[in-house]
Write a structure and sequence with these properties.
heterodimer; A: about 400 residues; alpha/beta; 6-stranded mixed β-sheet; 4-stranded antiparallel β-sheet; 17 helices; B: about 260 residues; 9-stranded parallel β-sheet; about 50% helix; globular; binds pyridoxal-5'-phosphate
Chain lengths: ~400, ~260
């Protein structure tokens, strides 16, 4: 199912208009067009600037703690009895998820552009925490937009952001989740465009964001590729990552795209099941449209209104997906699949008990699919899963689902 | 000649400025929109902007966001707005109708199908907030085919070198966004607006209307001094959504405000 990619085609995306085939682009109001052009200009220049790269690399090494290990999940692999499963340990990054790779990169761009105020949207709160963290480090004012529903289910991260000095804005419009937080962040940006840098948390949004977030996150795949060669002795047979907006997935996949033998699986949130409409799986069950500055697969109704989504994990609860994934789906290079809420929760418990690693609920979707995939493969084969984040933030949600009373008597 | 062009000629001949109200189709209730449109014309509106409800109205401030939400609660979408335009046309053949909204409902219908349906409904112009000139080509071809004007926004942040790109594709008029921000924000700088309008008018013979921060007769008069027309949105939508007032009272208040603004410019 994984079609090889023609490198010459791949070298051309995104094109000058920010297009990945028919996807991507800059679908924003006129007020933001010059800010996007400026960002693109600065990024293009800094990408080649050794001082910028050196500073970025130094932050990744000493602030984030990279490289993150590639870890063999031995007990879990033994139990499944199929392919060997390896975790790319992004959960060990400072702040506990892959998100920080990108926030460090964008905050440094903001610094070079002389912007003192940064804003961010967040779902699970991981991107918000990562933004608040680097803002604290660089002495920047930080405002994080978060849907009211997510403020409730991610209370721990909300308080972390406040401790870091960020202002958390609870968004009460629309469905009160990630997409509405992004709307509100865009509105803030339009209003304060002169002094504000918008740190987008995933490979979505208008060009050049999907490109620059991908570039910043690609450190995951570059490391994983080198680690596979030295630890496994060859490239893995498959890569698996969860897909909300798609940044941890693209970060892992991108450096492997030209390796024809490596199959790739992006795992979307199946919620209560894709047949129920209560899910967050636009690549699996959606159609192309325009939202948040780009053309991509979306969950939308017959009138082109964006639908409410459902996932047990706040970070996957988004009706769109980065445009590069839409393109990779259409050209057949990556397979997009789903894991439902209950499958993710089961994988969460399984990996916690078997490996002593408590994954984020987002990540648990990737793990659920990886287990199924591994079972169809043989022990001489290997799978690398992006362990995109740790699960501490999710224990209240898990307790609620399991009917456990954390602060009550031991049960 | 398009209805929009004809209207500008008529206004220019009379030495008048255009007053252009914005209301959301289906807000506060689907049944009142067409009647409201007629009343706004009676109160002095020269053209009408009909907002097409969208689930994610990124460029709108709180007032118009709520208008979209009220309309969506009644399941009003692009098709119903087109039906409202068509119903309005049965009794008013002259007042231009401009649909203002976001790309996705139009994309979902398909550009060609949308252009045909809009032309059939008697729509004269389209403003799509999130289709800047770079992204609008495909839709513009279809709108031109059916003779519908594509009206573009120019913002205070638009660099001078972008102006020709926008003007080249625009028809009907230019919509100058009077402030950096979402609709309904409060920080209108009329001197800046006047300077920018002058700059745009030096580059095009198209009329320039100004909107985004105009909320009463006074601000309308100030802006009207330099522009060819004023757009009033949030202030009307606020009155229409005023839950402390009965439905008829809300409509009367909105129509009353438009009358005030008309006498101001
Ligand atoms: C741990 C973790 N993984 C994955 C995601 C999903 O984002 P993306 O698809 O951009 O990687 C999130 C988002 O909050 C997250 O916190």
């Amino acid at each position: 199912m994984n079609k090889p990619i023609d490198p010459s085609v791949y070298a051309q995306v995104p094109d000058a208009n920010g297009r990945f085939g028919p996807y991507g682009g800059k679908f924003v109001s006129e007020t933001l067009m010059s800010a996007l052009a400026e960002l693109e200009r600065v990024y293009t220049q800094l990408k080649e600037d050794p001082d910028f790269q050196q500073e970025f690399d130094a932050y990744l090494a000493h602030f984030v703690g990279r490289p993150s290990p590639l870890y063999e999940a031995q007990r879990w692999s033994d139990e499944i009895g199929g392919a060997r499963i390896y975790f790319k340990r992004e959960d060990l990054n400072h702040t506990g998820a892959h998100k920080v790779n990108n926030t460090v990169g964008q905050a440094l761009l903001a610094k070079f552009m002389g912007k003192k105020r940064v804003i961010a949207e967040t779902g699970a709160g991981q991107h918000g925490v990562a933004s608040a963290t680097i803002a604290a480090r660089l002495g920047m004012e930080c405002h994080v937009f978060m849907g009211e529903e997510d403020v409730r289910r991610q209370a721990l991260n909300v308080y972390r952001m406040r401790l870091l000095g960020a202002n958390v804005v609870s968004v009460t419009s629309g469905s009160r989740t990630l997409k509405d937080a992004m709307n509100e962040a865009m509105r803030d940006w339009v209003t304060n465009v002169d002094d504000t840098f918008y740190i987008i948390g995933t490979v979505a949004g208008p060009h050049p964001y999907p490109m620059l977030v991908r570039d910043f996150q690609s450190v995951i795949g570059r490391e994983a590729r080198a680690q596979s060669l030295s630890q496994i002795g060859r490239l893995p047979d498959a890569l698996v990552a969860c897909v909300g907006g798609g940044s941890n997935a693209i970060g892992l996949f991108h450096p492997f795209l030209e390796d024809d033998g490596v199959a790739m699986y992006g795992v979307e949130a199946g919620g209560h099941g894709v047949e129920t409409n209560e899910h967050a799986a636009p690549l699996t069950a959606g159609t192309p449209g325009v939202l948040h500055g780009n053309r991509t697969y979306l969950m939308q109704d017959e009138d082109g209104q964006i639908m409410h989504t459902h996932s047990v994990s706040a970070g996957l609860d988004y009706p769109g997906v980065g445009p590069e994934h839409s393109w990779l789906k259409d050209i057949g290079r990556v397979n997009y699949v789903v894991a439902n809420d209950d499958e993710a929760l089961a994988a969460f418990h399984k990996v916690t008990r078997t490996e002593g690693i408590m994954p984020a609920l987002e990540t648990s979707h990737a793990l659920a699919y990886a287990a199924k995939l591994a079972a169809t493969m043989t022990p001489d084969q290997s799978i690398v899963v992006n362990l995109s984040g740790r699960g501490d933030k999710d224990i209240f949600t898990v307790a609620e689902v399991d009917g456990a009373d954390i602060f009550g008597e031991q049960n | 000649m398009s209805r929009i062009q004809a209207k500008w000629q008529e206004l220019q001949a009379a030495g008048k400025k255009a007053v252009i109200p914005y209301v959301v189709g289906g807000d506060p209730e689907p049944d009142v929109t067409v009647g409201l449109m007629h009343k706004l014309v009676e109160a002095g509106a020269d053209m009408l902007e009909l907002g097409v409800p969208f689930s994610d109205p990124m460029a709108e401030g709180p007032a118009i966001q709520k208008g979209h939400e009220r309309a969506l609660a009644h399941k009003v979408s692009l098709r119903k707005c087109l039906a409202m335009a068509a119903e309005f046309r049965l009794q008013d053949a002259a007042t231009p109708i401009i649909l203002m909204g976001y790309a996705n409902p139009i994309e979902h219908m398909g550009y060609a199908a949308f252009a045909d349906a809009a032309a059939d409904a008697g729509v004269d112009g389209v403003i799509t907030v999130d289709l800047p000139p770079e992204e609008v080509m495909a839709m513009n071809i279809e709108l031109k085919r059916v003779g519908i004007d594509n009206i573009f926004l120019i913002a205070p942040t638009t660099p001078d070198e972008r102006l020709p790109l926008i003007i080249e594709q625009a028809s009907g008029f230019i919509y100058y966004v009077s402030l950096k921000g979402v609709t309904g924000a409060g920080h209108l700088n009329t001197e800046e607006v006047a300077a920018k309008v002058k700059q745009i008018k030096a580059l095009t013979s198209l009329p320039v209307a100004v909107g985004f921060g105009i909320k009463d007769a006074e601000s309308a008069a100030l802006v009207g001094a330099s522009a060819d027309g004023v757009v009033v949105g949030s202030a009307l939508v606020n009155l229409l959504g005023d839950a402390s007032n009965v439905l008829e009272g809300r409509i009367n208040a909105a129509v009353g405000l438009l009358g005030d603004i008309r006498s101001g410019v």
